[in-house]
Structures are given as C-alpha cells and as structure tokens.
Write the structure tokens for this entry.
Amino acid sequence: MISLFKKTKYFLLAATTALVVISASGCEDALQEKVYSQVPTNDFYKTLDQAQLALNGVYTYLWNDNYRDGQWVTLGDVTAFTLIGGGSANGSGDRSGIQNEWNTFSWTPDANELVTAWDYFYQVINRSNTLIDKMEAAEFQGKDKILGEAKFLRALFYFNLVRIFGGVPLHVHATTDLSETEKPRSTEAEVYTQIVSDLQSSVELLSPLNKADLTAGKATAISASSLLAKVYLQQRNWKQAAEEAKKVMDQGVFDLFADYENINNPDFQNGKEHIFSIQHGGNANSTSQFYQTRMIYLFGPPAQTVKGVNVQFHALKDLVIFQAKKSFFTESPDTYRKWQSVRDKMPYYYKNGIKELVRDTVTMYAPFLTKFHRVDFATGFLKEGVNYPLIRYSDILLTYAEAINETDGPTAPALEALNKVRRRARAVGTAFEQDAKVYPDLGGLTKDGFRDALLKERAQEFVGEGHYRWDLIRHNRLISNAKANGVTAAAEKHNLFPIPTQQISRNNKIEQNPGY
C-alpha cells in the first residue's frame, strides 16, 4: 500500500478490484498482490466507470486495521472504561484483572494503534485527494456524485484524526512528490474548517437523496448532514449541531428499529436506522472463518469451562481480546438493549466442540460484548456479514437532544428525543417489551441532570462502537472518569493521544503534543 511518506511514483492500479479479492481471503498467498496492469494517474479518471472504480478503492479501505482489528474500539471504548482489553491485553481468558496501556493511560507515541491510525487514515485521505482532484477537473456526467462521496470520506477520516491527535498536517490535494509531505500541523480549528467545508459541499453534491444509495451502503446527502451534526457537536457548536440533526430528523427517511437486535443483524443491513455503515457482505461468508471480519471474533464469548464442562459458543475458541468492564455491566440497567449488547449469560452452548448444541442458559466467567455475535446454529460458525455502524439514527436523536439541552436546557423536544431511545431500550412495540418501570421515561431534569442522563445513554447505546471517549471529552469528563476508575495518573494531556514517533522523525516540522 502506498504510504503518504514514501518515495514512490504514484500510480493507480487499474485492477483496483484486486484489493477486494485480497480482503475476501485469509490465505497468505493472496497477500502477494499481482499487478496485471498499471495506468499512470494522468491517463486514468477519464470515464465514470474509471472514477467509480477508484471510489470503490476508497470505500474498500474503510475496512482496514483500525476498524477491522478493533483498534478504534480500543481508543474509543477501552479508554472510556466501557470495555477492557485491546493492546497488550490481547488474548482469550478472563481479562478483567489485566492492566494495559489503554486502561492505565500509559500509552506511548510508539503504540501500534496510534501508528496504524496515522498511516491508515492518511493513506485513505490521499486516495480521496487523488479522486477529488481528478473529479474537480473532469467534465463527464455523473462526476458530482463521485466527488460528493469522496469529500464525505475525506471528512470522515480527518474527523477521526483531529479527535485522536488534535491539529494535524492538512493535505487537500494528492501527494505526488516527497517535498509535499513535509507540512507542519494545522490547528484544530483549521482542520475542522476543512471538514465542515467538505461536508457542506458533499450535501450539495449528493442532493437530492438517492434512496438506492442507502440500501447499497454508500454515502448520501443525509450521511453528510449527519456527520456534519456530529462534527458541530464535537466542536461544541450546539446551535448548529441541533439545526443539522433536525434537518436529518425532518426528512423522515430514518427511524429506530423497534428491536435493538436488528441493528447488527445481517438480515436488516442498511435498514431504516443505518445512516452510514462499513459494509461487509450481507449474510454470506458464514463458513469462511478467514478472520476478514475480524471484529466479530474479538468480543466473544470464547470457549470456557462451565460447571466442569468445556463449552463453546461458536466454532472458534480463541481470538477474543475484549470484555465488557464489570462495573459498566453491573451499573447498566437490565434492559432488553443490555441483553442484546453485553451479557454474562448465554442462552445456548456447544459441547464436544460444536457437535452438540444445548439450548440452556449458562453463566460465563465475565460479561462480553455480544451485539456483533451472530451464529449459524446449524454449523456453529459466526456469520461474517455483519456491517459495522459508523452513524446510526439513534446518534442523531441523542445529538439533537444534547445540543438542545446545552443551549436551551431540557426542553420537551430534547426530552422526547432522549426518551425515544430509552423506550427502544426496553423494546417498546415488540414481543419483548418491558414494563416502563424497568427503564422509565425521564422528566423534571435540570440541565446538568439531563446531561448526566444523556451521557449514560450514549455509553449504553453505543458500547463497542467507539464513541464514548469523544463524548466524555466533549464535556471535559475523560480525566475525571479515568480517575473514578482508579487511574490516578490521568492528566489533561490524555485528552489527546501522542503523535507517533516515526512521523516526527519523518517530518521535522511536526511537533509533539504537550506532555508526551
């Protein structure tokens, strides 16, 4: 893969689809990529088909180490104490007593997750930049849609970078020469300005909404508006965040699934709640076990001994590296949503490998995240076609509620948006509906009380989706939350991660974040 910082003559592989082939196979031979043809970038992007092929290459790169291998979850959930594991705590077995760099706030600039995030996000940004440059100069019909999707994707990855590292070097054109790589860090404000500009442009270019793109899992005008609402929220631009979220709500295109289980069920992929997700192949691949949807194997539950019997919950015994933090688990109300998200019991198990399926409830040695766990009971294999949601409609409802509360207090519309998510948590309108007293609607709250309730709601609604760290930071609570979880060394510097050492050595114009 081309790195932004290597001395490489940049070409676009006309056989970009080879990337998809590689991602569909776990065999080592598949990693030996064969180049059947090369087309210099100046000779490419001449037709809509060529541009679409290049765009597919950007989408394909969504499912890379940072998301696929759980690194985004490590950064967003483990450091916020909803999950434990990741990093040096990898491995099966009970991880609840394991201390690592992420739950002790002792990470370093050489942490693999940070090195990977920088390289990965900049690589896909450069792909987007190449496509954007070419589309802005192109004249063929249909180029605007390609351009709008590319700008959405570039904004998404810069949003990830700025939240992780703060201000970063801002590249908005394709890097074709080594001299172009040595840029100083832009300020956070400058990076956010570029993100907002890209998303506003994306909304315009992708309007009117193409509903076929929703079912195909592509970026749309609503995706761009939704991400823009989240960007404004993270900047604490409350009024703009509320306005943008309300635009999405008023379009009437999205709604909550009545059943929380359907969010990550492959049978309902790209459904009415999914604003933008990383795609992974529907119900297929249920028997491949090639680890290319590695995420579904990372959360468990793994094989274990229950009442002296060795049991499994799917065909593979190992590769689980995360658990739900026990305090988070016990403090979460016992809603239907909790059962579909994190649990310490399973309603089935396999004995004798996966030869004997037993439909009985067993208690596990720890709580695990089970929201991505989909088993083909006939084979014991996990279904790999589980999309990874990046923006869901419940996020828009809570974004709206949070932003309104910060400007006007807990108004009736803010309460209704929050309570709509809470009602779904107890499965209102389904066969699993719980009594209101299990998780009642909220009312009569102060502004501070509403904020507290909303942050708890976010933690429970999006556990395992890599959101909660940024929610805490938005309200200056990351450090106090860490100290409440026993991390006495937590300090202001930990609101940002350090710039990877190798990037500073490659580019002497980059300065390290304070305190590292």
Q: What stands out?
A: The two ends are 29 Å apart (CA to CA).
